[in-house]
């Protein structure tokens, strides 16, 4: 995937770390309106903020339509897409807004 024009228009494709940029691109390509990135939405190294926000995680993730994780990365510079030895055949997935628990689609 390449950076879509809205990212380029605001110069975000240069300023966002690869993992965040990948998540934004996937979200936009799927037509999903909202994206929660923990490390942007929770003040890092602030235990009080973490306690406040982590108390809401069940609601945030429980209401999500899709969860994207950068499991192969140890930090935001790693990106969501890393080479791996195991190859799986592509799978077509249909997304239906009516299946979503919230107003996440355009």
Describe this structure in words.
With 106 residues, the protein is an all-alpha fold. It has one domain. Helices cover 37% and strands 0% of the residues. It contains six helices and no strands. It has helices at residues 5-9, 12-15, 18-29, 38-41, 47-54, 57-62. The radius of gyration is 15 Å and the shape is globular. The two termini are 20 Å apart. The model has no long low-confidence stretch (mean pLDDT 77).
Describe how the helices and strands are arranged.
Elements: H1 5-9, H2 12-15, H3 18-29, H4 38-41, H5 47-54, H6 57-62
Protein name: Heterokaryon incompatibility domain-containing protein
InterPro entries: HET
Pfam families: HET (PF06985)
Helices and strands, in N-to-C order? HHHHHH
Radius of gyration: 15 Å
Mean pLDDT: 77
Number of strands: 0
**Helical residues, percent:** 25-40%
N-C termini distance: 20 Å
Strand content: under 5%
> What's the number of helices?
6
Query: Main sheet, how many strands, which sense, barrel?
Result: none
Assign the structural class, choosing from mainly alpha, mainly beta, alpha/beta, alpha+beta, or little secondary structure: mainly alpha
* Uncertain stretches: none
Domain module count = 1
Mass-distribution shape: globular
């Amino acid at each position: 995937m390449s950076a879509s024009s809205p990212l380029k228009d605001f110069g975000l494709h240069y300023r966002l770390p690869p993992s965040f940029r990948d998540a934004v691109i996937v979200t936009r390509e799927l037509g999903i309106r909202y994206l929660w990135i923990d490390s942007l939405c929770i003040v890092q190294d602030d235990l009080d903020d973490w306690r406040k926000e982590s108390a809401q995680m069940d609601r945030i993730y429980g209401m999500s339509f899709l969860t994207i994780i950068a499991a192969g990365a140890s930090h935001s510079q790693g990106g969501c897409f890393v080479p791996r030895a195991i190859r799986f055949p592509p799978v077509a997935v249909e997304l239906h807004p009516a299946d979503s628990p919230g107003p996440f689609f355009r």
